[in-house]
Write a structure and sequence with these properties.
The complex is a heterodimer of chains A (382) and B (463). Chain A has helices at residues 3-21, 132-135, 167-178, 202-225, 230-267, 272-279, 285-297, 314-323, and strands at 33-35, 47-49, 51-57, 60-65, 70-74, 87-93, 98-105, 112-119, 126-131, 144-150, 154-163, 196-197, 200-201, 303-306, 327-328, 334-338, 343-346, 351-354, 357-360, 363-369, 373-378. By secondary structure, chain A is of the alpha+beta class.
C-alpha cells in the first residue's frame, strides 16, 4: 500500500480520535440538580439502613457498613426535580469494589424499580450513568430513590446529579468508560468481558474500523485509478484488519497494564498466606484460621473428613486442598464442621448428626474453634 | 525471598533435556525453535517419567528425577554426535525470505520487541505473584498435584479410598501432565507454593510465541513473523492462561507444535518431523482429553496429504500413529485396566440426550462467540476472510492440509456443541473459548501463510 494513502488515512483517524479524546473531564457542566456532598447540609433528609457511619469527608459522602449483608442510603422525598433530565449521574468509589443497586419509587404505594450495577474496586472515583427511562417508566415521576450496597464495607459518593448530556458529551463519557480496565475475576479463565463504548461493543467497533478503512481506501483508489480491482479490495480489507488489530492490542494490553498495577499494589510485600487471604477479600480469614487450627490440633498422621456430605460445598472443597498435608478420607476418625447449621451434636447420646442423619457414633467433641466450628472424634464404643 | 535459582532449574532442566532429545529428531530449526520445542518436549518427557515412576511405586525424589533428565540429555547428545551431526548444521535456520527493512521497520520492530518483552515479564511476574485462583485450576489440577506432592507418588493403593487422590480431583479420568509438572516445581521450591507452581504456564506462553515466530520466520521475513507473533501475544485469553495453572495453554502449545511438525513434513518429507507431531499430540492428550480431536484431525489430514500427493502411505502413517500410541498408550492402558472413565462422561450423562440429539439453534450462539466477542482479537474473522477471499489459492497450495486440520477440529467441537454433550460449554460460555484457545495459534499461522503466499504471488506478478 502506498505511503500517501497510509498518510491520508492516519490523518483522518487521528482527527477522529482527537475529537473523542479531548473533552473536558467534567463534561456534564449542564447538570441541574442533585447532591454534591461537599458539606453536612447536603445530608439533610437522607436516611440510612444498616450503616455504621455516613460522614462528609474530602468532598464526598463516606458510608461504612454496620456489618449486615448490605447497607443503604435513601434520598429525601424529591419535591422538585429538574423539569427535564435524562440521566442520573453517580460518581462513586469503593476500594474493594461492591455490588450496588439504584432503586426508585414513584410514591409510597408504587413498585420499586431497581437497576443493579457493579462498582469496580478502585481508589479513584468513577462515573456511573443511568438513563432515566432505563429504570422507571416515563409516565412515573420518581418521588424517592435509594442506593443499596453489598459485598463491601465502605463506599464513597462524590455526588449524585440529574443530567441531560448532549450527544458529544455522551460520547466522551462512553470513551472514558471504554478504557475502564477489568479486574481479574473467576470468569476470566473462560472468557474476557468485551469492553463497551456505550451501547456498542468493542467487537462492533473493530468491525466499524475495518469498514471505515476499507471505505476510505476504496474511495482513494477510485479517485486515483478510477477502477476497483480484487487486489485493491484485498489490500483495503487487510489494512483494515491490521489497523483494527493494532487498536485491539492497545486497548487490551492497556487493560493488562492496569491489572498489573493493581496486582502489584494488592500483593506486593505480602506473604503467600496473606495473598490467599486477599484473594477472598478477607472473608475467609476465620475459615483459614480454623484450617490452621485443625492442622495443629490433630495428632500427626491423622485424617479428617467434613461433617457435611455435600462434596460440592465450597468449604469442603477448600478445606480438602488447604488442609494438606493433613489428608481427607471418608474413613477418617476426625470430623470437622464449620458454620453449618445442618450439623448438630447430641451430647447425651454422643451422636454427630447432619440433617438428622448420623455422621458419627459414638463421638465426642475433640476441639472447639469459636462458636461455629469444631472437630469431633469418633470414639471406641466401650 | 524468591527462590530464583530453584525455579529457574525447575524450568530449565526439562528444557535442556527436551532440546537434546529434539536434536535427534529435526535439523535446521534454529536455536530459538529448538529451545521452544525443547521446553514442551522436556515437560512432556518429565510428566511421563513421573507417571511411570508412580506406576512402579517409586517415590518421587528430586535427585532421582533430575538424574533421569540429565542422563537422558547426555545420552541424546551422545547419539547426536555419534550420528556424525554437528550442532551448527542442526541449528542453521534454513532458507530465509525477503530481508529488506528500512529505518521505520526497524523502529517498529524495536517497539514490538519491547512490548513483547514487557508482556513476558508481566506473565512471569503475575504467575509468581497471584496465588492459584480460578476454580478449575485448583479443583481439576492443583488439588491432586498437592496430594501427589505430599505423598510423593500417585497414591495407587487400591485399598485406600483416596486412590489416585480421588478426594482431591474432579475426575480420575483427567490426565496427569499439569498436576505432575506442579509437583516437580513444588519439589524444587521445597513446598507447594500457591503461586510458583503456576510458572510452567508462563514457560508455555513464551515457548508458544517463540515457536510461532521461528516457524513463520522460515516462511517469511523476520518483520512479518514478528508482527504476527505480536498479534498472537495480544490474545487476552492466552495471556490470562499464562498466569494461571490450567491445561488449555499447554494443549495449545502441543497442538501448534504438532501441526507445525506436520507442516514441516509436508514441506520436507522428513519422517522424524511426523513422529514428533505424533509425540506432541500424545502429550496434548496427556494434558487434556479433548486433545484427542487433534489426533483424529491431523491423522485424517495426513492421510489426505499422502493420498493426494501420491506419497508412500504406510510408513509415514504408521510412524505417526505408533509415535502417538507409544507415548499415550501407557496412560490409556492404565485407565482401561483401572476402569477409569473420561472426565467428561459424567457431565455428558448428566446432560441427558445423546450424540445424535442435535440442537441447531446453538449455532447462532457459536457464531456470536467467535465473531462478536474479543477473546481472540480478530483472529477468527481474519481467518474466515483469508480462507474465503483466497480460497482458490488456499486449495491449490499445501496450506490446505493444515487448514483441513483446523476445519476438522472446529467441526468436531462444533458438532459436540450442538448436542447436549457439550452444549453447556456454549450456553454458559465456560468451554467454547477455552477450546478455541487450543487452535487459535494454528488459525493465525494459517492466515499468515495465506497472506504471505498472496504477497509473494503479487510480487511475482509485478516482477
Amino acid at each position: 500500500m502506498r505511503s500517501v494513502e497510509i498518510g491520508v488515512f492516519l490523518k483522518i483517524s487521528i482527527a477522529l480520535l482527537l475529537t473523542l479524546v479531548f473533552f473536558p473531564e467534567d463534561s456534564f457542566s449542564f447538570a441541574r440538580e442533585g447532591w454534591e456532598f461537599d458539606s453536612i447540609n447536603d445530608l439533610e433528609g437522607w436516611q440510612t439502613m444498616d450503616v455504621a457511619s455516613a460522614d462528609i469527608g474530602k468532598g464526598a459522602l463516606v458510608i461504612t457498613s454496620a456489618g449486615a449483608q448490605s447497607f443503604r442510603i435513601i434520598s429525601p422525598a424529591l419535591q422538585e426535580l429538574p423539569a427535564k433530565y435524562d440521566f442520573i449521574w453517580l460518581r462513586l468509589k469503593s476500594p474493594d469494589g461492591a455490588n450496588a443497586m439504584l432503586m426508585q419509587r414513584g410514591d409510597a404505594s408504587s413498585k420499586v424499580f431497581e437497576k443493579g450495577f457493579i462498582i469496580k474496586p478502585s481508589d479513584d472515583f468513577k462515573d456511573y450513568l443511568f438513563a432515566k427511562d432505563e429504570i422507571i417508566p416515563q409516565d412515573l415521576k420518581p418521588k424517592r430513590f435509594a442506593l443499596d450496597f453489598s459485598d463491601t464495607q465502605i463506599v464513597s459518593v462524590d455526588f449524585i446529579r440529574f443530567a441531560s448530556p448532549t450527544f458529544s458529551q455522551m460520547l466522551a463519557f462512553w470513551w472514558q468508560g471504554f478504557w475502564d480496565a477489568e479486574e481479574i475475576n473467576m470468569g476470566m479463565v473462560n472468557f474476557i468481558d468485551t469492553p463497551m463504548f456505550g451501547p456498542v461493543s468493542f467487537a462492533q467497533m473493530l468491525y466499524a474500523v475495518i469498514s471505515l478503512v476499507v471505505f476510505t481506501l476504496i474511495v482513494i483508489a477510485l479517485l486515483r485509478k478510477k477502477v476497483i480491482t480484487r487486489d485493491v479490495v484485498a489490500k483495503a480489507v487487510l489494512t483494515g484488519f491490521v489497523i483494527a488489530g493494532l487498536f485491539y492490542m492497545v486497548r487490551m494490553d492497556y487493560g493488562w497494564l492496569k491489572i498489573w498495577q493493581a496486582e502489584i499494589g494488592r500483593f506486593s510485600g505480602t506473604t503467600i498466606e496473606q495473598r490467599v487471604s486477599l484473594l477472598y477479600k478477607g472473608e475467609l480469614d476465620e475459615f483459614f484460621g480454623f484450617i490452621r487450627f485443625i492442622k495443629t490440633a490433630l495428632p500427626e498422621g491423622s485424617k479428617v473428613r467434613p461433617a457435611s456430605r455435600r462434596a460440592d460445598m465450597m468449604y469442603s472443597l477448600l478445606a480438602r486442598y488447604y488442609l494438606l498435608p493433613v489428608k481427607t478420607s471418608t474413613t477418617a476418625d476426625y470430623i470437622w464442621t464449620y458454620d453449618d447449621p445442618e450439623v448438630s451434636f447430641d451430647e447425651q447420646r454422643k451422636v454427630l448428626l447432619n440433617k438428622g442423619e448420623v455422621v458419627a457414633y459414638p463421638a465426642r467433641v475433640f476441639a472447639s474453634y469459636g462458636s461455629k466450628a469444631a472437630i469431633y472424634e469418633v470414639v471406641e464404643d466401650k | 525471598m524468591i527462590p530464583f535459582a530453584s525455579i529457574f532449574l525447575a524450568l530449565a532442566i526439562p528444557t535442556v533435556t527436551g532440546f537434546m532429545v529434539c536434536l535427534l529428531f529435526v535439523r535446521g530449526t534454529g536455536f530459538i525453535a529448538a529451545i521452544c520445542l525443547g521446553y514442551g518436549l522436556g515437560m512432556g518427557v518429565l510428566s511421563y517419567a513421573m507417571f511411570l515412576m508412580g506406576l512402579l511405586r517409586i517415590p518421587y525424589s528430586l535427585p532421582l528425577i533430575t538424574s533421569f533428565l540429565v542422563v537422558l540429555a547426555v545420552v541424546s547428545g551422545f547419539f547426536f554426535y555419534r550420528k556424525g551431526r554437528r550442532l551448527k548444521e542442526f541449528l542453521s535456520p534454513g532458507i530465509s525470505a525477503d530481508e529488506r527493512g528500512g529505518f521505520l521497520r526497524v523502529l517498529l520492530a524495536g517497539a514490538i520487541v519491547i512490548w513483547l518483552a514487557l508482556k513476558i515479564v508481566f506473565v512471569f511476574h503475575e504467575a509468581g505473584l497471584r496465588p492459584l485462583y480460578s476454580w478449575d485450576s485448583w479443583t481439576h489440577w492443583a488439588a491432586g498435584a498437592k496430594a501427589f506432592f505430599y505423598e510423593r507418588g500417585l497414591m495407587l493403593d487400591y485399598t485406600d479410598d483416596n486412590f489416585m487422590a480421588k478426594a482431591y480431583r474432579t475426575s480420575l479420568g483427567y490426565p496427569l501432565h499439569t498436576p505432575l509438572i506442579e509437583v516437580w516445581i513444588a519439589m524444587w521450591v521445597g513446598s507447594f507454593h500457591e503461586a510458583y507452581v503456576k510458572l510452567f504456564s508462563a514457560g508455555y506462553f513464551v515457548s508458544l510465541l517463540g515457536l510461532f515466530f521461528t516457524m513463520l520466520r522460515k516462511e517469511s521475513s523476520w518483520f512479518y513473523a514478528l508482527l504476527f507473533t505480536f498479534f498472537l501475544s495480544g490474545v487476552p485469553l492466552i495471556t490470562y492462561h499464562a498466569t494461571d495453572a490450567n491445561a488449555e495453554l499447554p494443549v495449545a502449545y502441543y497442538a501448534f507444535a504438532a501441526v507445525v511438525m506436520f507442516w514441516r513434513h509436508i514441506k520436507t518429507d522428513e519422517l522424524n518431523a511426523l513422529m514428533l507431531s505424533g509425540v506432541f499430540i500424545a502429550m496434548a492428550v496427556f494434558t487434556k482429553n479433548v486433545a484427542l480431536v487433534y489426533f483424529v484431525a491431523v491423522g485424517i489430514a495426513l492421510m489426505v496429504f499422502l493420498l493426494v500427493e501420491r506419497k508412500r502411505f504406510f510408513l509415514p502413517a504408521a510412524l505417526f500413529v505408533v509415535s502417538f500410541l507409544v507415548v499415550i498408550g501407557p496412560w490409556k492402558l492404565f485407565m482401561f485396566f483401572n476402569n477409569i472413565a473420561y472426565g467428561a462422561k459424567e457431565q455428558a450423562d448428566a446432560a441427558g440426550g445423546g450424540f445424535f440429539d442435535i440442537k441447531l439453534h446453538i449455532l447462532g450462539s457459536i457464531v456470536r462467540e467467535f465473531l462478536f466477542t474479543i477473546n481472540f482479537n480478530l483472529i477468527f474473522a481474519f481467518w474466515f476472510f483469508m480462507t474465503a477471499f483466497f480460497f482458490k489459492r488456499m486449495v491449490s497450495s499445501e496450506i490446505r492440509y493444515i487448514n483441513l486440520v483446523v476445519v476438522l477440529v472446529m467441526g468436531m467441537l462444533v458438532y459436540l456443541y450442538i448436542t447436549p454433550l457439550f452444549s453447556h460449554y456454549v450456553i454458559t460460555r465456560v468451554g467454547i473459548h477455552r477450546h478455541a484457545l487450543t487452535y487459535a495459534p494454528i488459525v493465525l499461522f494459517i492466515s499468515a501463510l495465506l497472506l504471505k503466499d498472496y504477497a509473494r504471488g503479487h510480487e511475482t506478478k509485478k516482477a
